[in-house]
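Quick one, tokens below. Sequence please?
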């Protein structure tokens, strides 16, 4: 069990924040975008200016799991003024729609430009145990349901098979002049995720969506972890 998981378990946490989940995935060797927590509008603007524009802002609350559907995500913010307006709108949304929720603040992160949005994740099946998922991600994952599954533990051959099984695999090969995705990076992430799951059975559900994949590699833009 990693120290970060031990700490979360000791605190009795069930749902981890995006910041916590990204820290855990980073410790597991999975690339994640730079993400910081802002507790005020001024802090969000300062972080954004330090990161460089454009940036993304997202509500940070373990009580609001589906941030996009809740109106808690703003993308491609190009200046400090836009960041300030987005911060105010996110907090207003949270107070109006989720008045009893615990709001830790707003996350500020780098915008990932280009690439294919995929999803990787894990769930615990009552019959088969831990199952790893891979598929086309982003906001369409629930609509398209273009995913493949394998039982943990996973080896490289299993990971390659998962990638080849999805219907949208042509997107990974490059379309309309785009470069093919570096699938070796996806294989490496799937195998690392499998190893991480074996070492931390206290986790019952996790996902990285979207995981942006391009010709250079892949990086996690959002993450979720649910503990036992």
């Amino acid at each position: 069990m990693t120290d970060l998981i031990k700490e979360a378990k000791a605190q009795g946490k069930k749902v981890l924040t995006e910041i916590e989940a990204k820290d855990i995935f980073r410790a597991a060797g999975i690339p994640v975008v730079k993400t910081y927590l802002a507790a005020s509008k001024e802090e969000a603007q300062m972080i954004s200016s330090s990161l460089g524009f454009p940036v993304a802002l997202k509500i940070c609350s373990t009580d609001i799991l589906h941030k996009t559907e809740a109106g808690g995500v703003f993308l491609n913010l190009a200046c400090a003024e836009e960041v300030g307006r987005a911060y105010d709108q996110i907090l207003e949304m949270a107070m109006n729609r989720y008045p009893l929720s615990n709001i830790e603040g707003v996350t500020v992160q780098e915008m990932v430009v280009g690439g294919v949005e995929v999803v990787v994740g894990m769930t615990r099946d009552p019959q088969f145990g831990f199952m790893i998922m891979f598929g086309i991600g982003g906001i369409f994952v629930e609509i398209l349901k273009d995913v493949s599954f394998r039982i943990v533990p996973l080896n490289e051959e299993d990971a390659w098979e998962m990638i080849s099984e999805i219907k949208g695999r042509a997107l990974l090969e490059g379309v309309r002049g785009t470069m093919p995705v570096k699938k070796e990076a996806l294989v490496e992430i799937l195998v690392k995720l499998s190893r991480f799951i074996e070492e931390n059975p206290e986790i019952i559900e996790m996902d990285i969506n979207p995981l942006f994949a391009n010709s250079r590699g892949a990086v996690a833009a959002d993450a979720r972890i649910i503990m036992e």
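The first strand starts at residue 35 and ends at 38. The chain has seven helices and ten strands.
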